[in-house]
Design brief:
It contains nine helices and 30 strands. By secondary structure, the protein is an alpha+beta fold. It folds into six domains: 109 residues, Beta Barrel (OB fold (Dihydrolipoamide Acetyltransferase, E2P)), CATH 2.40.50; 71 residues, Nucleic acid-binding proteins (OB fold (Dihydrolipoamide Acetyltransferase, E2P), Beta Barrel); 75 residues, Nucleic acid-binding proteins (OB fold (Dihydrolipoamide Acetyltransferase, E2P)), CATH 2.40.50.140; 77 residues, OB fold (Dihydrolipoamide Acetyltransferase, E2P), CATH 2.40.50.140; 84 residues, Nucleic acid-binding proteins (OB fold (Dihydrolipoamide Acetyltransferase, E2P), Beta Barrel); 75 residues, OB fold (Dihydrolipoamide Acetyltransferase, E2P).
């Protein structure tokens, strides 16, 4: 920083210095006067707006004095050398460019402008830079509508927002920054200078692109850096070039999302498939450097072997498990659990690491079927041991259907009580008539079939079948009393017990011939008869006639065996008259 001499009388000193030359050369005679006139005639006369380079002779608090030659001095306002903090940026002995502005009428000093000279020089440099397409340096000083203003060594230029860079940015972020730019429009008369930083960026990139293209060839194996990952693939930086890595070239795993294979910033080895030298873009493949995972898969993962993998996707029909990159198997919902009501989410979720058994391999169709339930014994094998026929089993009613009730016996085993096995009476119209969901019941195992995965249960079988008890207590030949419930021309139906009827043909009603059942009976009559036959389907034939004949035969035998008594006694007629022949 230059010290300013505050005690100097600046302009007076300059005037005295400028007047010293004539005094020193004061003429003594006419010859000397003529010589003096000749000397003054040779003093350089400076024109307005003339540009000069002159040395600084003195710096004061108000002005800067420079040597104009011929013992003349010029004066420049000190403000033209001050920065925003008031520091003066000029020193005695330093040569500076100036522009002649005129002459001070009061002092006669030549007035100069350092600023105007600098601006004029800047305009010349800007004009030359525009013509030669060379960059210039400037400082962004202010953001305005549509762009920023740039100070170019005293000249203000405008840079549109679209020309600041190759991507959108906030204008205020650039204020105060030194930038290199290209003059793309120049008009001195209109004081117009338009700048572009983007042009330099694009030209630099183009040169780098051309250089990079000379270093790559189709078939090259090269490392790239992942820049972007999208649903249809990824974009890489490969040797300074943009490279597209399509989804189908990422991996043999067709269903895998690109984001599950690569991430932004990853270093990836790829093979160059195509080069577009006009756009400078590459098409590359990662898959080309990977061995097909389906090669030898049947030998590496035979049926029945165990594998471990990550659940990558779940659907309503199963879960996809990645065994290794490019090799994904499906655990179908039917192979998820021995429990037929199991849900996918009850057993696996995306991201889980699971073990499974290889169920089948189809290399041609590239399908690998896996099973989770095969890792444990089929519970139905244990069910056959645990629930043999004839055992009693307890469980909880899980649901009711029109045809029966489902009973949960274990976590994975359910049995069915068919509606026909709910009651011996057979009058159940819906299982809800006797059972409800959540109810604990005990039932008899009627059949366990692991092959069909069914257990038949019976509720009524816990007690004896009333029909069995009836037929055990009333075999053929036994006599039984019943009530007439229906009349037919050919005979009558007699109720013998609940849900058990017998039929008596008209020919079996009496010893004598009967034309109509109504001759002896009516509905509601109590009739004693003999069971003569039990046909298939528990059809019972009854005979009153046979019972009477048997009773007569018995009495005759009794009569024949009895000794005759003196003084009278009951004769055969009296015995037979005691037989009840009808329902009286």
């Amino acid at each position: 920083m230059t010290h300013v001499d505050e005690n100097d009388n600046d302009k007076m000193d300059a005037m005295e210095s400028q007047n010293a030359a004539p005094e020193a050369a004061a003429p003594d005679d006419s010859e000397d006067f003529e010589a003096l006139l000749d000397t003054y005639g040779k003093i350089t006369q400076h024109q307005r707006d003339e540009l000069l380079t002159v040395p600084v002779v003195k710096v004061t608090k108000d002005c800067v004095l420079v040597d104009m030659g011929d013992k003349a001095e010029g004066i420049i306002d000190i403000q033209e050398f001050m920065d925003a903090q008031g520091n003066v940026s000029v020193h005695p002995g330093e040569s500076i460019a100036v522009q002649v502005m005129g002459r001070d009428e009061e002092t006669g000093l030549i007035t100069l402008s350092y600023k105007h000279a600098r601006v004029h020089g800047t305009w010349l440099r800007l004009e030359q830079a525009c013509a030669q397409r060379v960059p210039v340096m400037g400082k962004i000083v202010r953001a305005v509508k549509g762009g920023v203003l740039v100070n170019l060594d005293g000249v203000e230029g405008f840079m549109p927002g679209s020309q600041i860079g190759d991507r959108k940015t906030e204008l205020e972020e650039w204020v105060g920054k030194e930038v290199e730019a290209r003059v793309i429009e120049f008009d001195r008369e209109k004081n117009k200078v338009v700048l572009s930083r983007r042009v330099i960026i694009e030209e630099t990139r183009k040169r780098a692109l051309e250089d990079s293209l000379t270093k790559v060839n189709v078939g090259d194996i090269i490392e790239g850096t992942v820049k972007t990952v999208l649903g249809f693939g990824a974009f890489l930086d490969v040797a300074g070039l943009d490279a597209a890595l399509p989804r189908e070239e990422l991996s043999y795993e067709r269903a895998a999302a690109p984001s599950s294979l690569v991430k932004v910033g990853d270093k990836v080895q790829v093979k160059i498939l195509e080069i577009d030298r006009e756009t400078g873009r590459l098409r590359v493949s990662r898959k080309a450097l990977i061995t097909d995972p389906w090669a030898g898969v049947a030998e590496r993962f035979p049926v029945g072997s165990s594998v471990t993998g990550e659940v990558v996707t779940t659907t309503k029909f199963g879960a996809f498990v990645r065994i290794e990159e490019g090799l994904t198997g499906l655990i179908h919902i039917s192979d998820l659990s021995w429990d037929k009501n199991a849900r996918i989410t009850d057993h696996v979720k995306e991201g889980d690491t699971v073990s499974a058994v290889v169920v089948s391999v189809d290399v041609d169709k590239k399908r690998l079927a896996l099973g989770l339930k095969q890792l444990v014994e089929d519970p139905w094998i244990e069910a056959e041991r645990q629930f043999p026929r004839g055992t009693r089993a307890k469980g909880v009613i899980t649901s009711l259907a029109p045809f029966g009730a489902f009973v949960k016996l274990t976590d994975s085993i359910e049995g069915l009580i068919h509606i026909s096995d709910l009651s011996w009476e057979g009058n159940v119209k819906h299982p809800s008539d006797v059972l409800q969901a959540g109810q604990e019941v005990e039932a008899l195992v009627l059949k366990t079939d692991a092959a069909t995965r069914r257990i038949a249960l019976g509720l009524k079988q816990l007690s004896e079948n009333p029909s069995d008890a009836f037929f055990r207590d009333h075999p053929v030949g036994s006599d039984i009393e019943g009530e007439v419930v229906r009349m037919m021309p050919t005979g009558i139906f007699i109720s013998l017990a609940p849900k058990i009827d017998g039929f008596m043909h008209i020919s079996q009603m009496a010893l004598e011939r009967i034309d109509k059942p109504e001759q002896l009976f009516k509905v509601g009559d109590k009739v004693l008869s003999r069971i003569t036959k039990i046909e298939r389907g528990n059809k019972i034939n009854l005979s009153r006639k046979e019972m009477i004949q048997a009773e007569e035969s018995k009495l005759v035998k009794q009569y024949a065996a009895a000794p005759a008594e003196k003084g009278g006694g009951m004769n055969l007629g009296d015995l037979l008259s005691g037989i009840k022949l009808n329902n009286d």
